[in-house]
From TrEMBL:
Keywords: Membrane, Transmembrane, Transmembrane helix. Residues 9-130, 149-279 form the EamA domain. This is EamA-like transporter family protein. Belongs to the EamA transporter family. The chain crosses the membrane at residues 7-29, 35-55, 67-88, 94-113, 122-139, 151-167, 179-198, 210-230, 237-261, 267-286. It holds the Pfam family EamA. It is found in: Membrane. It is a multi-pass membrane protein. One of its GO terms (cellular component) is membrane.
Amino acid sequence: MDRTAIAWINGLIGVVIFSGSLPATRVAVMQFDPLFLTVARAAIAGVLALGLLVAFRERRPARRDIVSLLVVALGVVVGFPLLTALALQHITSARSIVFIGLLPLATAIFGVLRGGERPKPAFWVFSILGSVLVAGFALSQGVAASPVGDALMLAAVVVCGLGYAEGARLSRTLGGWQVISWALVLSLPVMAVLAALTMPASLAGIGAPAWIGLAYVSLFSMLIGFIFWYRGLAQGGIAAVGQLQLLQPFFGLALAATLLGESVTPAMLAVTVAVIACVAGARRFAR
């Protein structure tokens, strides 16, 4: 199997894992405060990441890489989880998942700015088309649906795209799992203190679904998913493999409907199918 195929397989595994993030977050914020959920998931994943780095005796990152690791931490460890958790207090996970269709464009833009990639002009046509479809769907629902929730999701997409591109750039030299692990470890002291300060006064009333949601976003969304995702981006190109995120709404909508019983409208499905159709064209002209 050639390097390109391996890159896309790694990227697809990462996307499948991430697809469960918003439904799991939606379940967790029903009983956990969004701030606690954000810092708790980062603290739990940080402890696990520290164990991995110690077990494999990984060398500390170079001083020149610290700033980039902090950008990764602010983007995907703190920014995206917190903003999405806040957004999910105003909108359903099905609606929030559709906004994830904007992530490929954000990732590609930061891949050019930070990763030095230069996709062909036709690539941008397909990438922008996918994003326009998503944005058009959101606008068709009317801003009255929840302008706050939509704005939070858009901000989450921007910081996440930056974190993805920066992490992928570092993965070329540090390795995929090492990048997310060091980003988690750098944020661990602050996250652990905040988790202790924001912990609910009583855990007795927290149901099993909320705990399962917390476990999923801590282990899979915050650590395991990034191992595959950063490896795929580093191997196959940030802009190219990043287009796989257009598949995330499809998986996420299916999970939201199956596990949460949320309504998935024909319009949502139509937009998702149209957006997925853009992946093939974008992939063909990525390089």
